[in-house]
Amino acid sequence: MAKTFGASIQTVYNTLQDLANKDQQGFVSPVEFNRFAQVAQLNIFNGLFDELKDVKKLSRSGFDPSRDKSRFKRIQEDLAAFSTKATLPKVSGVFNVSNATSPMARIISMATAGSILLDQSTKKPIEICYDEEKIERILISNLSSPTEEFPIALVSEDIHVFPTSINKIEVRYYKYPEGRTSTGVRTATMPTYTEGGTSTDFELPEHYVSDLVYEIGKMIGINLRDTDIVNYTGQEMTARKQAETY
């Protein structure tokens, strides 16, 4: 699989500088830019989940193009880059999400931490519930009370798993976006532009450069037009690739 590079923070910054000059908004300082960069990336990331719901409806109605042209497929692929998992031990009766390997944004699925026995996994899927009232009804019911074969989890600030005999779980989740180095390596450092130094790129893929320019520009107060963003972003990306070639 080809290495994934994040959206270049240099490209986003240079584009905003050019657009600010064009709009006579003055100089965009690195400090001002960095103040909005992380928020912009998070806004776009969260917006993908809302867009996925809308596109899913179109897909079911047959209005979303198929295969590589499918917007539904492309959003799924982009979000897949943020999918990871963590094994959480029970501490003081609960499973603390802060023990996850990366900051947890949204839970995808959950299972007991089993093993492989005779080529069969002993893991059991855990039903996820966010409603405390519903959990109370389940726990007092003789028919639906959770068992080790059919466990259930209440997700709140921490994760509570029933029955309480389960001591370790595996959580598959979407992590919050962070940063990437110029060589495409993931880093816990948030996207930061450093003038004349080492910057940290966005973790969002390269094709989100225009979205990031628009989002940050909107926060700074630059009057942006789609054609300007596309033109200036294209120029910056071309210049960057030419510089990498030589």
Description:
A 3-stranded antiparallel sheet has the order 1-8-2, with no helix packed on it. It is built from 6 helices and 11 strands. The mean pLDDT is 87. The chain is 39% helix and 18% strand. β9 (179-180) and β10 form a beta hairpin. The radius of gyration is 22 Å and the shape is elongated. The protein has 2 domains: 9-79 and 176-245, no CATH class; 84-174, no CATH class. α2 (30-60) crosses α5 (209-220) and α5 (209-220) crosses α6. With 246 residues, the chain is α+β, with helices and mostly antiparallel strands.
Summarize the structure.
This protein has 246 residues and is of the alpha+beta class.
Kindly list the characteristics that best describe this protein.
alpha+beta; 3-stranded mixed sheet; single chain
Helix content: 25-40%
**How many strands, what sense, and barrel or not for the largest sheet?**
3 strands, antiparallel
**Unreliably modeled segments:** none
Distance between the termini: 25 Å
Beta-strand fraction estimate: 15-25%
**What's the overall average pLDDT, rounded?**
87
Written as H for each helix and E for each strand, in order along the chain, the element string is HHHEEEEEHEEEEEEHH
What class, by secondary structure content? alpha+beta
Number of structurally distinct domains: 2
| Global shape | elongated
For the biggest β-sheet, the strand order reads: 1-8-2
Number of helices: 6
What gyration radius follows from the Cα positions, in whole Å? 22 Å
Secondary-structure topology with pairs:
Layout: H1 9-22, H2 30-60, H3 71-80, E1 83-89, E2 104-112, E3 116-117, E4 120-121, E5 127-129, H4 132-140, E6 152-155, E7 159-162, E8 168-175, E9 179-180, E10 186-187, E11 201-202, H5 209-220, H6 226-245
Helix pairs in contact: 1-5, 1-6, 2-3, 2-5, 5-6
